[in-house]
Specification:
Low-confidence stretches: 123-131
CATH class: Alpha Beta
CATH topology: Rossmann fold
Shape: elongated
Strand order of the largest sheet: 1-2-3
Helix content: 40-55%
CATH superfamily: Glycogen Phosphorylase B
Number of domains: 1
Radius of gyration: 22 Å
Number of helices: 6
Mean pLDDT: 78
Order of helices and strands: HEHEHEHHH
Structural class: mainly alpha
């Protein structure tokens, strides 16, 4: 039996204090985006590298699957969940991401100009812009 959990919704829960993941790019990115410290147990592929970057940035900790015991896992969970430095780093990183997002939105608004006030992804966007010259308006 396989159970799939939507990490986007799960990581957004306000009571979440720690995100335990295999270290895949999407789940790790989502946790960091939400400002939640990460405990990663990488297994294969890009997971070890993703967790190495996460750990180097102070956003979480990597846990080696070969070292897994009940006591060591509990210790790792408590370290990441209760150490304020992980929360401070993830909160700081989250704020940086939000600033970048706002800067990109401002750039997009300037780039679109006055004729395209809505984003193409917005439900109110019709894809129709005002005519550029008077002849086009008359026709």
């Amino acid at each position: 039996m396989c159970i799939h959990i939507n990490t986007f919704l799960f990581a957004a829960h306000p009571n979440l204090k720690l995100f335990i993941t295999h270290g895949g790019l999407l789940s790790t990115t989502e946790a960091v985006h939400r400002g939640v410290p990460v405990l990663g147990i990488p297994i294969f592929g890009d997971q070890p590298l993703n967790m190495k970057h996460t750990e180097n940035a102070g956003l979480g900790r990597t846990f080696d699957l070969d070292d897994l015991t009940a006591d060591s896992f509990y210790t790792a969970i408590m370290e990441v969940a209760t150490n304020p430095r992980y929360v401070q780093q993830t909160t700081s990183h989250q704020q940086k991401l939000e600033r970048i997002k706002l800067e990109n939105q401002e750039y997009d608004d300037i780039r679109r100009g006055p004729n395209m006030s809505s984003s193409p992804r917005s439900p109110s966007y019709s894809g129709i812009t005002k005519p550029i010259n008077k002849k086009a308006e008359e026709n």
